[in-house]
Write a structure and sequence with these properties.
globular; binds 5-O-phosphono-beta-D-ribofuranose; 5 strands; alpha/beta; 17% strand; 164 residues
């Protein structure tokens, strides 16, 4: 099975990355996690992206905050799918990272999830791998059914509480 590469711009992004690693672990998807910055360690970020396909990765998740160029810098050096997570920092509520990640020029796409959206980044990566993996697709279907059942349980509880 292909691995998911996870790259964060700083270890301060780790709480958001944990949402992704928890999801990938639950789905039994192998992954690697690295701290590489587009600005502080541009050579290492570039080398990771350039070698990602031959190193067995199927998609890359890149998380960064502030002037968040990491996902775009990774995407510039690979044709693997790159999923960007804009991370909120102390100022601007993540709007800075959202725009830096989502507004890629034509030719170098980054599939951008919500601000701090580590869980959805992992799910999107899983769905990419599941195109060619029927067992993983079945695990994703099972998760959807479980999530739906949990919402319907909440509906039953709350509608009963307000029943007249
Ligand atoms: C970005 O700058 C990182 O992704 C992080 O979200 C932000 C702040 O980094 P630190 O100053 O916390 O290392 O490159």
């Amino acid at each position: 099975m292909k691995k998911i590469g996870i790259v964060m711009g700083s270890d301060s992004d780790l709480p958001i990355i944990r949402k992704a690693t928890d999801m990938l672990s639950a789905l039994e998807i192998p992954f690697e996690v690295h701290v590489y910055s587009a600005h502080r360690t541009p050579e290492e970020a570039r080398a990771f992206a350039l070698n990602a396909r031959k190193n067995g990765f199927g998609a890359i998740i890149a998380a960064a905050g502030m002037a968040a160029h990491l996902a775009g810098a990774i995407a510039a050096n690979t044709t693997l799918p790159v999923i960007g997570i804009p991370c909120a920092s102390a100022y601007l509520d993540g709007m800075d990272a959202l725009l830096s990640t989502v507004q890629m020029p034509t030719g170098i796409p980054v599939a951008t999830v919500a601000v701090n959206g580590g869980g959805n980044a992992a799910l999107l990566a899983a769905q990419i791998l599941a195109v060619e993996d029927a067992d993983l697709a079945a695990r994703l279907d099972a998760k959807r059914q479980k999530d739906s059942a949990a919402v319907l349980e909440k509906d039953a509880r709350i509608s009963a509480e307000f029943a007249q």
